Amino acid sequence: MQALAERLEVALGGAEITGVDPLGFAALKTVVPPADSIVGQTVGSVGRRAKYLVFELDDGVRLLIHLSQAGRLDIEEPPKKTRAKGAAVRLRFDNGKAILVREHGTERKAAWWVLAPGDDGPLEKLGPEPDSDEFAELILHGTEKRRIHTMLRDQRTVSGIGRGYANDALHLAHISPFATLASLSDEQRAALLGAIRQTMADALEREREREGGLSAPKLGERFRVHNRAGTPCPECGEGLRRVSYESYEVTYCPRCQTDGKILADRRLSRLVK
């Protein structure tokens, strides 16, 4: 999302919004200010907070966009008039461009907000960013007793990591996804903090190679271990394993992360003792 925000800043910074076309009934999450009130306002900058795109408009008004898991954002030049399947909103600008937010999947969770000055909306409850001093303090001295993978995915605890990069960072640090922060040694905590920051920095560098919007994830081949269960570990060569949940999975290497232990997977409970 950081790389996408940077591309949108280049494409839309200084442009005036000339049209707002709500295309998805449930995608707009605010009522006041009304969506059409941003017509005529100028995009001062485009940034990011956690997984939200943040458009800074006139007089402190902000426009937020969250693509969720399967959302897409197309930069249209010139703007189109068609209503794409899963479309949430189209914003048109005076520089001859538009952005279309649409949902690639079926859950329809991509969303947008128009926030009045001083209203933080969904940003209010977000945790610190991985590169912040507050996050470093949490990792180095915190006493969290939830599983680390769960903690890293909780946007109220830390913003913007997600399950894929959590898998990769824990593998890089040689730490079990089922371990707790409270159980880690000082050396493991330092390794975890370094691995998280390295993983996020490497991911951003790769994402900056893209151009345009975000029409498809194209991330599969870029992950270290995420979604690679059954393939050889990039460090030791042992087959990567996974723990499957309803909407996501945890990928890990038994040799590198769990001292050879196979983590319990409810879908394989009859096979794994």
Describe this structure in words.
23% of the residues lie in helices and 19% in strands. It has 273 residues and is an alpha+beta fold. The chain has a four-stranded antiparallel beta sheet with strand order 1-6-7-5, with no helix packed on it. A hairpin with a 4-residue loop joins strand 9 and strand 10. Helix 2 (133-141) runs antiparallel to helix 5 (186-207) and helix 4 (162-173) crosses helix 5. The radius of gyration is 20 Å and the shape is elongated. The mean pLDDT is 92.
Q: Kindly estimate the percentage of residues that lie in beta strands according to DSSP.
A: 15-25%
SS field, number of helical segments: 6
Written as H for each helix and E for each strand, in order along the chain, the element string is: HEEEEEEEEHHHHEEH
N-to-C CA distance: 40 Å
Q: Globular, elongated, flat, extended or rod-shaped: what is the shape?
A: elongated
Search tags:
273 residues; 4-stranded antiparallel sheet; 23% helix; 19% strand
Write the layout of secondary structure elements.
Elements: H1 2-12, E1 17-22, E2 45-49, E3 52-56, E4 62-66, E5 71-76, E6 87-93, E7 98-103, E8 111-115, H2 133-141, H3 148-153, H4 162-173, H5 186-207, E9 241-244, E10 249-252, H6 254-257
Antiparallel strand pairs: 1-6, 2-3, 3-4, 4-8, 5-7, 6-7, 9-10
Compact description:
By secondary structure, the chain is an alpha+beta fold.
